[in-house]
Design goal:
Methylamine Dehydrogenase, Chain H; four-stranded antiparallel beta sheet
């Protein structure tokens, strides 16, 4: 009996010697997300025109913000849980021109979680997010065809509460409460044969402003055999297909909207140059600049 008790004591002594360092050291551990150096195909790079903040989005790898002080990209969506896993497909990213702290993303992947789609909002440059699930209204596909065609999510440069979002199959949507709720604004274009729909939304910052809202808005439609660029002069209530001055649709002539190139670390040297050979006149037609 004494030997049994002695052996039991020795056994527990061994357990204490083995596990005490583990228990002690565990209290000093700091757990963090594993760093993600990169993932997915970069489908968009967005630069804030006043703050210079730079973001990039990917088709299956989330989104990143450039950390200039440490010369690295910071992953912004490593907090997603299993039910939100499809949000790693970021179809569009928009910054608030008036407040660089506000960042929005249209997220969803068609073949993950039933195509669950949400518009994410951050008020601290992507450090934290809230989101509105819009799956019942329209669906995104961050890894779909045309995912690099432009930013289909945009914030009114004159009103931080107003956003527009172009969808792949359900028209143009609008929020008047900074992304909390969304309602259909225009359904003149819905589905396209390539499944891309309205692929970009762009406000004209020099256009007129009525009741605090920008009135001139352009949207791009990815398709062949129909209008490609539409213009609104009434704040997005109606849109008209833009025709070239010859009467032909713009897809039949080498006409382009002016596009500003932002400076991207290691990629682009000149942040102020333009790559367009055309200009937008006031009367809604695209003309050659020559």
């Amino acid at each position: 009996m004494k030997n049994y008790i002695h052996n039991v004591k020795i056994f527990f002594l061994h357990l204490m010697l083995v596990f005490s360092p583990i228990l002690t050291n565990a209290q000093t551990y700091t757990w963090k997300n594993a760093p993600i150096g990169g993932g997915g195909f970069v489908t968009g790079i967005i630069n804030h025109q006043t703050s210079g903040d730079k973001y990039c989005r990917t088709d299956v790898g989330g989104a990143y913000r450039w950390d200039a002080a440490n010369s690295k990209w910071i992953q912004l969506l490593d907090w997603l849980n299993e039910s939100e896993s499809g949000f790693v497909g970021v179809e569009a990213l928009a910054q608030d021109p008036q407040n660089p702290n506000n960042v929005y993303m249209l997220c969803g992947t068609e073949y993950m979680k039933g195509g669950r789609t949400a518009i994410l909002k951050s008020t601290d440059k992507g450090n934290t997010f809230t989101y509105t699930d819009v799956t019942a209204k329209f669906k995104a596909h961050g890894n779909g065809n045309g995912r690099g065609n432009g930013e289909r999510l945009a914030v009114d440069p004159k009103n931080s509460n107003i956003l527009f979002c172009g969808s792949r199959a359900n028209g143009l949507w609008k929020s008047t409460d900074a992304g909390i709720s969304w309602n259909l604004a225009w359904n003149g274009v819905t589905t396209t044969t390539n499944g891309n729909g309205i692929c970009f939304v762009s406000f004209d910052p020099s256009g007129s402003v009525v009741n605090g809202a920008s009135q001139t808005i352009y949207i791009g439609v990815s398709r062949i055999g129909g209008g490609n660029i539409y213009k609104s002069t009434d704040g997005g209530a109606t849109f008209n297909d833009i025709l070239c001055h010859t009467g032909q649709r713009c897809r039949e002539r080498p006409c382009m909207l002016p596009i500003r190139i932002m400076k991207v670390p290691e990629l682009v040297e000149d942040s102020e140059r333009y790559i367009s050979s055309t200009r937008l006149p006031e009367h809604g037609q695209i003309q050659d600049s020559s």
